Amino acid sequence: MWDHLRYEVRRHRWLARTDVPVAPWTTLRIGGVAPWVLWPRDSEEAVAVLETLTRRDIPWRVLGGGSNVLIPDMGTLPWVLVKLDLLRQVRATDETVRAGAGVPAPKLCMWAARRGLGGLEFMSGIPGQVGGLVWMNAGAFGRSVADVLTAVWVWEPGQEAAVRVTPAPAEFGYRQSPFQARRSVILQADFRVEARPPEAIRAVLQEMKAYRLRTQPLQDKSAGCAFKNPPSGPCSAGQLIERAGLKGYRVGGAMISSRHANFIINTGSATWSDVVRLIEYVQSRVWEQFHVWLEPEIEIWPASRPDGASGLAF
Predict the structure, then answer these.
(1) Which helix (H) or strand (E) holds 186?
(2) Which DSSP letter does residue 308 get?
(3) Tens-digit pLDDT string for the chain (314 aa)
(4) Which own/partner pairs from 271-280 qualify as long-range (CB within 8 Å, at least 24 positions apart)?
(5) CA–CA separation, 131 vs 189, rounded Å?
(6) Cα distance between residue 272 and residue 313, in whole Å
(7) Residue 86: which region, alpha, beta or left (left: phi > 0; alpha: psi -120 to 50)?
(8) Fewer Cβ neighbours under 10 Å: the N or C end of the chain?
């Protein structure tokens, strides 16, 4: 398998490295070693890489900003990783901003703010990349990506080129998008914006940043919110976890944040297993006390099953 990949990398002169530690690429700082990592330089090359890996039956996953993912740390991973970091083109018209999948959300918001293009401010505190935000319909402050998304360029197995799609808002749900079930890889996206004074946009960005600093453990290593808010209440996931008395509870090096109960932080020595066991414990305690089953918001990669790609990880 690796001989085939080595041949393709040399033939196409793809950017690649072998035996790469993954933990530094995740906000939890947990992860094993990737046998290969490929960095496509543009959308066309990304399609060629993904099509070749699929045709050669080489298991792969796409890793974005690493802020909403838990990656196994038990040795060498069973997947080739594809990083879309180089897909960072951004351009705008009067009503639309087009961004590549590798653009970090905070940088996209600042780019738009400097040009007086508003509407994307809610993304500013999400430490992921555009592809991941679209794939999971990320959101904050009562808004989500589906509210501003107008078009997406995706590749799916069997395609020879990226395809432009315009999903309807009804196809999205809370932290759900139509791309999750189809092994879609998002390459770029268009977002609806509106002209506003740059100073007004910057004021909103500062207000949102201040709120996050007051309420979230931004200085700690975490993957963001660990659980989705339950669809039918009675309150948020964080409030349920706090009411269950789990703030500060830890398994190994993984701990429920004492600042915000829906954040699991790595105190310095947390492993994949520590975080998984803590997630399972929280689920069981909240179920016992409130009969609410909390669904993880973190994408948990399996420890040993090379099952291909599930989309673009945050």
Answers:
(1) strand 185-192
(2) -
(3) 788 899 999 999 999 999 999 999 999 999 999 999 999 999 999 999 999 999 999 999 999 999 999 999 999 999 999 999 999 999 998 799 999 999 999 999 999 999 999 999 999 999 899 999 999 999 999 999 999 999 999 999 988 899 999 999 889 999 999 999 888 999 999 999 999 999 999 999 999 999 999 999 999 999 999 999 998 878 999 999 999 999 999 999 999 999 999 999 999 999 999 999 999 999 999 999 999 999 999 999 998 654 444 444 44
(4) 271/30, 271/73, 272/30, 272/31, 272/70, 272/71, 272/72, 272/73, 272/74, 272/303, 275/28, 275/30, 275/70, 275/251, 276/70, 276/300, 277/251, 277/252, 278/249, 278/250, 278/251, 278/254, 279/226, 279/227
(5) 8
(6) 16
(7) alpha
(8) N
CA–CA dist 185, 267 (Å, integer): 32
Looking up tokens 């951004």 gives 90
DSSP strand pairing (69-70 vs 60-63)? unpaired
294, amino acid identity: L
